[in-house]
Amino acid sequence: MTKPHNQMMIDRLADAAREGKISRRSFMNYSMAAGMTASAATGLWGTSARAEPKRGGTWRLAQHDGNSSDNHDPGTYLTFGMINLAHIYRSYLTQINPDQTLGGDLATEWSATPDAREWTFKLADNATFHSGGKVTANDVIASMNHHRGEGNTSAAAALLADVADIKDNGDNSVTFVLNAPNADLPWLLTDYHIAICPANEDGSMNWQSGDGCGPYKLVDNEFGVRSYLVRHDGWHGEGAWFDAIEILYINDPNARQTAVVTGDVDSASQMENKTLALLQRDPNLEIDNVPSAAAVTMPMDTSQAPFDNPDVRMALKLAVNRQELVDKIQFGAATIGNDFHHSPAMPYFPESIEQREYDPDQAKSLLAKAGMEGLTVQLSTADAVTTGAVDAAVLYSEHAKAAGINIEVVREPNDGYYSDVWMSKPWCMVQWGARPTPDVMYSLAYKDDAAWNETRWQNARFNELLLQGKSELDDAKRAGIYTEMGQILRDDGGAVIPYFPNFVYARRKNVRHTGELAASWPMDGARAAQRWWFDS
Predict the structure, then answer these.
(1) Full strand arrangement of the beta sheet holding 118-123
(2) Which residues fall within 8 angstroms of residue 96, CB to CB, at 6 or more apart?
(3) What predicted TM-score, i.e. pTM, was given to this entire model?
(4) Is residue 223 predicted with pLDDT exceeding 90?
(5) Cα(486)–Cα(431) distance, rounded to whole angstroms?
(6) Which of 291, 326, 480, 489 is 20 to 30 A away from residue 43, measured at CA?
């Protein structure tokens, strides 16, 4: 029975690869488990998933979170609609690949000085703007300077704050000179705000025209309503298989779901988790359920009692059943958290750190040690935070009762939540968007003097390691640094981190991809238009 069973398994793997349901890594592992040699598995992958993508067709996307106030200024990009559109008609120096590694976009190669204070990026020679001009170092410098300078209001200003100068080397390359070491600079340049636009004669950036050098050119656009684009014949990168892209901005989740189910669109950018089981039974649909680097956190103000007591913080971390929150609130579409803000979708993930389990008895013991038996605390939240936020907080309060903890869930108004509640109330619930590396996340929210240090947590060793990581170019050493930082944050930090929500989107059966999907943003890191294709 072994041969027939293994052959059936191999056939199913080949079908999954053709339909874009499995990554190359998983395909190779399962194929070899079924008795294939590595070379045979590689060949099978090449004739199934790697069948040549086909050019042609208009890809119709139902896109969530599009608004009439959206615009072409990269410094103001905010909504998912803006982020997705930006990656279709504009380019960046670097990009996050479907396998979560760093790749080039306009930059074909890059290198740093040993102290990570200077970074040089070589630009693609064949890159052109939709208006016909060649992309030059001058355009890159103007685009970067749009986010720099005293009083700059761009949302990316903080990311480029340490850039002292950007030089045109005269050989189609640019060099960034930094005030302090930063081994993450090539990753930072994937940020969705830092798009490359043409330079004006005065050195400023021309964003107003909507010109770009991305895979598709804008032909017709009404923000928050519809965008229509055609393939850019001067596209410098790989992909861009569709002839045209039509984006319909549909904010209502039921309308988006109906559009993809009926075939009025080919893909939809966000599905509701509660409908997953139903959608997965539809023979005409494929559901992409992608673990992401976005996070749900419950930050405690560690400068205030009782959260200034590490035993209380640990008790609250032990009093939540994370798996039940994932199963019942996220319907399985999330990755379980471990109280350090480093998703498995980020590089350098420390797999060696032990997963924290629900342990109300230990939590009760720690509270007794702290002299705080029968602790009562308030947890603020709102539906606007994330899907099922209030329900998650209520379920957590039920978990905590077994530890003798009374969590009073305070349902705050949606309007003004992040101005009136976040970093104002002692304990609340927050959703963070995906960040490309742990350094970015830790610098934004856990460094002692960070503006968004939501827990007001102070740890000298953590901050020492953070500086070491910024200047360390050796990947193995950086991984060790982030492992120690994750352990410190897990055991001493002030945030309960229950889960990392997945990106869930849908496509019709004839829309294909390789089976690997970037976890930086929905829709394959917002690059589905570039990477996907029709099989018929």
Answers:
(1) 107-112, 118-123, 173-178, 163-168
(2) 102, 103, 190, 436, 518, 519, 520, 525
(3) 0.83
(4) yes
(5) 19
(6) 291
